[in-house]
Amino acid sequence: MNAINLVMAGTVGVLYGTGFTLLLSRSLMRVLIGVVVLGHGTNLLLQLVGGPPGRAPILGSAAPETFTDPLPQALALTAIVITFALTTFLLALGYRSYVLVGHDEVQDDVEDRRIARQKGPSVPLEDDDEEPDPLARAEHADDEVESAAKGRDDA
Question: Tens digits of per-residue pLDDT, 84-105?
């Protein structure tokens, strides 16, 4: 049985952690970089799982015990193609967002805010009358956005 190289396993863990952290960002460019980093982590993981290099799996050229399993290599090639396609799609999405909006930042949805507000506590947790409540200010801003959106829909 072959032992897994701990340095390579740690590298895969760091790549996956970095990729998922970037995916949770609001910027589409960071999401794109996160997908690319995850793709590299997946390729490294597949090659790590494939084991040490061996002989080509051609019958008659070597003993069957020395063959290299071609499946991880085929899966890595597939992962490269999928990562490239997803990268191309995200580049087009980011460019289109930049052209339409002027930045690549993903915006909050007004409907999501309304639903989150409905699920929130109905009674404030603390009675601080001296400081203005940021949640109340956010609700007021959301109400203004919703009323402006309804005004545009009615026109």
Answer: 999 999 899 888 888 888 888 8
- What phi and psi, each to the nearest 5 degrees, are found at residue 154? -75, -30
How far apart CA 30 and CA 19 sit, in angstroms, is 9
Q: Which residues contact 69 (CB under 8 A, 6 or more apart)?
A: 50, 51, 57
Distances (CA, A) of 58 to 46, 67, 106: 22, 8, 51
Residue 26 and residue 106: Cα distance in Å, rounded? 5
User: Which DSSP symbol is given to 59?
Assistant: B
Q: Which residue has the tokens 């400081």?
A: 131
Q: List the chain domain ranges.
A: 6-101, 110-154
Spatial neighbors of 21 by CB under 8 A, at least 6 apart, are: 34
Range from 24-38, 45-59, 120-134, 136-150 that averages highest in pLDDT: 24-38
Which tokens go with 53? Answer: 């290099």
3-state secondary structure labels for all residues of 103-143: CCECCCCHHHHHHHHHHCCCCCCCCCCCCCCHHHHHHHHHH
